[in-house]
Amino acid sequence: MFCRGQILVRTFLGLILMITPNVQSSVGADKPAGVRAWTAAERDELLGYARATWHSFESMTGPSGLPADMLNADDLGNWKPSKNTSPTDIASYLWATLSARSLGLINDHEADARIEATLASLARMERDHGFYHNLYEVQRGSRSTTARPFLSSVDNGWLAASLMMVRNARPMLRDRADALLDPMNFRFFYAPFDPADPVSRPGQFQGGWYPDDRSWTAFYGMLNTEPRIISYVAIARGQVPAEHYARLFRTLPADRGRQMQDPQGETRTVHGVPVFEGHYSYRNLDFVPSWAGSMFEALMVPLFVPEETWGPRSWGVNHPIYARIQIEQGLEVMRYGYWGFSPSATPEGGYQTYGVKALGTDINSYRTFEISSESKAKGGREDGPPREGVVTPHASFLALRYAPDEALANLRALVKAFPIFGPQGFHDSVNVTTGQASRSVLSLDQGMILVAIANALADDAIRKAFVEGPIEAAIRPLIATEEFSAGSHR
């Protein structure tokens, strides 16, 4: 079975891609995003979710300190960890451990012991050009021989981010985290901008590198996707110039092929670079799209970076609108009664990339549903019923800051209607048409859930652990002045 990180890398290979000025957003305009006075009952509810989610990490992590990519339940309901892990899985375990500590689920001693075991394994694991391969065996930490060797820039970006959190949040482990972080120079993946050849030298990061034949994948070009964590890490560490941020596309340039919409907008200068500030429109909402329309693409990075605060006229407008479209898609367009669409383990087994097609740039963007067996038998047409909607709980937690009432209500409804929550936390997805829940939990998705809860209940503890020092110094002014053309016409 492939680890989730591998599949995500494959999904996003080939992104290459700009936004415009202002219409005030009415979505989330009543109060700043994240400002929420939780009631005692809501805190207890979120802590209950957190305890069970942390238990899944206890179940999937062995003495090596390396988490399995996932837990899978057998026919008797016994949960068993998978054999492999990835850099993103390891990152997720590190920030989940920090989250558990900030929520009081474990004490300082246990947090440090767990993190120390992970760092010790990382120190022994095979690396190439300072970076980790995309698949390792959990028990021994040896590179897996079941997949082609690959260095993923985004997976290493998340691991680097987690090491930066460890060095800030657990001072006694700072030197050990730094020793692992220092060799990770992301300029290795970077193609500096060349005006004579902007296609092959676009000032962007490549998705990854195959050591066996020394070949590169395509570039990560879209701004509103989760690989922008690499941009923040590399810019803050002085490995690439700040202008790189302006080289990322807000909407896909017309000369890069077909896209979901013809974007509207105008060209402005951002950090000395001409940037097309473009947007798409859907249901009277203008927004900067992601690549394929999933929740984690847009809202995973702000689990760690207060983008809506640092960039109030860009991300502060776009993030709430993106969440709103996901909500409306599930409740009003598809009429599932539930919402939240993001890549996840499927109810039938395996892994699928779900999202809201209207939010994506790629004409093959993700969809909110599985084609039913009846439809498959008739040729599997995607554009006609019957469809089976698949919802993943981690998407609600990603929206918790921007739509807290809707997120909590959605989670309660899912728990009440389906067998989706148990001792290992939330199962990864549920088919809301058939009622079948996935029998897997994924380390990455569980990690996102724990971080969202820790930020909500522990005063943005995980955000603070990441941005302290060079991230805030470099990234806050970088995104402070830009104005997206996102907004609401309602």
Please tell me about this protein's structure.
38% of the residues lie in helices and 15% in strands. By secondary structure, it is an alpha+beta fold. The chain has a single domain (4-476), classed as Alpha/alpha barrel (Glycosyltransferase), CATH 1.50.10. The strands form nine sheets. Strands 13-14-15-24 form a four-stranded antiparallel beta sheet. The longest helix has 21 residues, at 40-60.
How many beta-strand runs? Answer: 24
Task: Indicate the mean pLDDT.
Answer: 90
Strand neighbour order, sheet with most strands: 13-14-15-24
Give the helix tally.
17
CATH architecture classification: Alpha/alpha barrel
The largest pleated sheet is described as: 4 strands, antiparallel
The percent of residues in helical segments reads 25-40%
Write the layout of secondary structure elements.
Elements: H1 4-12, H2 40-60, E1 70-73, E2 79-81, E3 84-85, H3 87-102, H4 108-124, E4 127-128, E5 131-132, E6 136-137, E7 151-152, H5 153-169, H6 174-181, E8 190-191, E9 204-206, E10 208-210, E11 215-216, E12 219-220, H7 228-236, H8 244-247, E13 264-270, E14 273-282, E15 285-287, H9 295-299, H10 307-310, H11 315-333, E16 344-345, E17 351-352, E18 369-371, H12 373-377, E19 387-391, H13 393-398, H14 404-417, E20 421-422, E21 425-426, E22 430-431, E23 440-442, H15 443-457, H16 461-467, H17 470-480, E24 487-488
Antiparallel strand pairs: 1-2, 1-23, 3-6, 4-5, 7-10, 8-9, 9-12, 10-11, 13-14, 14-15, 15-24, 16-17, 18-19, 19-22, 20-21
Helix pairs in contact: 2-3, 2-15, 3-4, 3-5, 3-15, 4-6, 5-6, 5-7, 5-16, 7-17
